[in-house]
Specification:
The protein has about 475 residues and is an alpha/beta fold. The protein contains 15 helices and 23 strands. Flavin-adenine dinucleotide binds next to helix 1, helix 2, helix 3 and helix 9. GO terms for molecular function: flavin adenine dinucleotide binding; NAD(P)H dehydrogenase (quinone) activity; oxidoreductase activity, acting on a sulfur group of donors, NAD(P) as acceptor.
Amino acid sequence: MRHLDVDICIIGGGSAGLSVAAGAAQLGARTVLFERRKMGGECLNYGCVPSKALIASARSAEAVRSAPGFGVKADLAGIDFAAAVDRVDRVIATIAPHDSEERFESLGVTVVRSNATFTGPDTVEGDGVTVKARRFVIATGSNPAAPPIDGLDTVPYLTNETIFANRTLPEHLLVVGGGPIGVEMAQAHRRLGARVTVAEADRIVAREDPELTAVIRDRLIAEGIDILEGARVKRFQMSGETITATIDADGERDLTVSHVLVAAGRKPQIDGLGLEAAGVDHTRAGITVDNRLRTSNRRIFAIGDISGGPQFTHVAGYQAGIVIRNALFRLPAKVDYRALPWVTFTDPELARVGLLEAEAREQIGSSVEALTVPFGKIDRAIAEDRTDGQIKLVLGKRGRILGASIVGDHAGELIHLWALAMGQKLGAKAVAGMIAPYPTMGEISKRVAGEYYAKKLFSPWPRRIVRFLGRFG
Ligand SMILES: Cc1cc2nc3c(=O)[nH]c(=O)nc-3n(C[C@H](O)[C@H](O)[C@H](O)COP(=O)(O)OP(=O)(O)OC[C@H]3O[C@@H](n4cnc5c(N)ncnc54)[C@H](O)[C@@H]3O)c2cc1C
Ligand SMILES: NC(=O)c1ccc[n+]([C@@H]2O[C@H](COP(=O)([O-])OP(=O)(O)OC[C@H]3O[C@@H](n4cnc5c(N)ncnc54)[C@H](O)[C@@H]3O)[C@@H](O)[C@H]2O)c1
């Protein structure tokens, strides 16, 4: 048994663990990282990267389909689905060196490629290595949850961990769950030629503003996706080579499909961690942490998907910074998600930061104002034929920004401005006063902020003042 005595030991080499490891090692801390599967974790191998790569192929197909509308003669001669998946692999391979064992070893991290288990409150073991550390970080992520549906375990269903290895275009893909994974994959597969049905228990992308989600729903339906909301998948069974799903959505029906993708939420990855030996509390949502990301064992932190908070790669990176300040600099840094943005990468994209209108009205009350501008009012969007969508700005007293949501082309890029404004506590005035280049999609941000002041500026008082001043030549 090899014994290591270090400053910080990290379990999990995904977005969260790697961010802490890189920071800690570069700050000179003696750092050990355990990873039992692929370096880079879910995001690189089965999540953000492959999904966005597949979405890029789907967007290309759509661009060809819409080319005649721009006066360009083009026919979609066909789609080589396997080639699109090969491209996904190449994209992963291009990014992988950044997350590799070699890179982390070169930064000074001792990487152990094995499962790690706590054997006590300050000791972890794996692959013949025992590590004692001043601080530990659990960053073991999450796995796809399997909903309790009769017969699910009797059919060969896909999850995000297997769908990007599927090289056969599904003839008919049933997506169970209309959250971000469900809608992103539904649209990508539809655009690449599959027939697609989404069965969602609630409504699709339910965490977002319903007015903006409606734009996504309309687009998905227009592209030929069957969307069943308020739907309960009751049973699965094999019928020869195909899968039959019994779905209750305004009455029961049987749907025969070639493939099923389960995208019905996540469960925390705590198996084999030895949390009892470590004295670390957890619930069904994940490991319990305080606002400094400390667990019930004060020398152990938990970050990323395992910590039960928002599940995004950029959150994992942000939390890693909080842990480094607490664990290495002994600063009492706390998480603050008020200016946290996220994006659902459908086309059009749906992006959001801060509160939704309904949340703001519930938390703050009648002083809340919501202003909207449709992309149809933006010249660049008209020129590009991308007028689908709108921005909604949620303001409190004196133009304080409480939240912004955007559905439209490049919404994920456009939300940066609002994340910065909220993070820096800038009001709508700062955005309204910005000189925005013409013609850009981003003008929509200045326009919506300007709406707030336009109402005040074009009210009777300023008009009286202008008339009065006009008398003096
Ligand atoms: C299809 C999909 C698309 C997504 N798209 C986006 C997106 O566009 N943008 C975005 O921000 N987020 C996206 N996400 C979410 C994002 O992938 C996760 O929030 C992020 O990967 C979480 O990182 P993590 O480090 O907490 O966990 P993970 O990436 O899951 O890493 C945890 C690692 O720990 C390892 N591990 C677990 N237990 C042990 C153990 N006992 N010992 C050793 N190693 C262990 C695992 O093998 C794994 O590699 C997407 C997720 C999915 C599934
Ligand atoms: N663009 C992004 O940033 C992005 C993309 C994909 C995933 N993610 C992250 O990964 C997380 C997981 O994504 P997800 O889409 O799996 O989870 P989710 O929890 O966001 O959505 C799951 C959906 O499945 C539905 N559902 C659950 N059980 C069901 C059942 N039996 N039948 C029908 N519907 C059912 C739920 O009502 C919910 O709408 C997200 O919360 C997000 O944080 C982010």
